[in-house]
């Protein structure tokens, strides 16, 4: 008697599961349109195919989303605050001092350092946004770019410095010469 009851219960459970699968199969014939998650009845409208057919269809991107980092290097004062705030050390900055002011950023900050290297490893980045918060010139921002698929992790290291090796060497020599002249002036006084 117990075996018969267990067999019937197992059969009914299998039929319920099969009916659910068949119902989803026929509901999936109607393709679902992309809906905005901010709509009042978003969860009631979810009928049909639930997979977005990427790249032909894309989900709407929220305004406050955190994706790919971008640096406006002309506005960067190379303060290194973003690298210090980064919890995973994905930002690598090397600077070269300048004997004179280089110029000004768009917000009026004086630039006194050259960005010899400004690399961000997006493979390490955890998209926390801390680097964007601490930046005094707001030159590092999060963009709405999210699809950066690649087979090589090294392709996810983005370099934002525009200086060539020759320019880096020249700027280092200028700073060394300035320091030597400064020391000579001290000893001569």
Description of the structure:
The model has no long low-confidence stretch (mean pLDDT 86). It contains four helices and seven strands; from the N terminus they run αβαββββαββα. A hairpin with a 5-residue loop joins strand 3 (103-104) and strand 4 (110-111). The chain is of the alpha+beta class and 189 residues long. The chain has a three-stranded antiparallel sheet with strand order 2-5-7. The chain has a two-stranded antiparallel sheet with strand order 1-6.
Strand residue percentage: 15-25%
Coarse morphology: elongated
- Radius of gyration computed on alpha carbons: 29 Å
Largest sheet: 3 strands, antiparallel
- Our count of helices gives 4
How many extended strands?
Answer: 7
Strands of the biggest beta sheet: in what spatial order? 2-5-7
Question: Key features?
Answer:
32% helix; alpha+beta; three-stranded antiparallel β-sheet; 7 strands; 189 residues
A few lines on this structure:
The protein contains four helices and seven strands; from the N terminus they run αβαββββαββα.
Per-chain topology:
Blueprint: H1 2-27, E1 69-71, H2 81-85, E2 91-97, E3 103-104, E4 110-111, E5 113-121, H3 130-134, E6 140-142, E7 157-159, H4 165-188
Antiparallel strand pairs: 1-6, 2-5, 3-4, 5-7
């Amino acid at each position: 008697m117990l075996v018969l009851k267990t067999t019937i219960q197992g059969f009914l459970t299998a039929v319920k599961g099969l009916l659910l699968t068949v119902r989803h199969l026929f509901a999936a014939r109607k393709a679902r349109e992309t809906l905005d998650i901010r709509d009042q009845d978003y969860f009631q409208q979810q009928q049909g195919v639930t997979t977005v057919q990427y790249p032909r269809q894309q989900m709407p991107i929220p305004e406050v989303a955190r994706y790919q980092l971008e640096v406006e290097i002309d506005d960067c004062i190379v303060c290194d605050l973003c690298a210090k705030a980064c919890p995973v050390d994905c930002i690598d900055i090397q600077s070269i001092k300048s004997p004179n002011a280089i110029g000004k950023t768009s917000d009026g900050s004086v630039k006194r350092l050259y960005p010899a290297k400004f690399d961000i490893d997006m493979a390490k980045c955890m998209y926390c946004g801390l680097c964007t918060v601490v930046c005094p010139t707001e030159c590092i921002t999060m963009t709405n770019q999210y699809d950066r698929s690649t087979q090589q992790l090294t392709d996810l290291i983005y370099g934002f410095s525009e200086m060539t090796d020759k320019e880096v060497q020249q700027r280092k020599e200028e700073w060394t010469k300035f320091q030597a002249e400064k020391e000579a002036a001290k000893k001569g006084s």
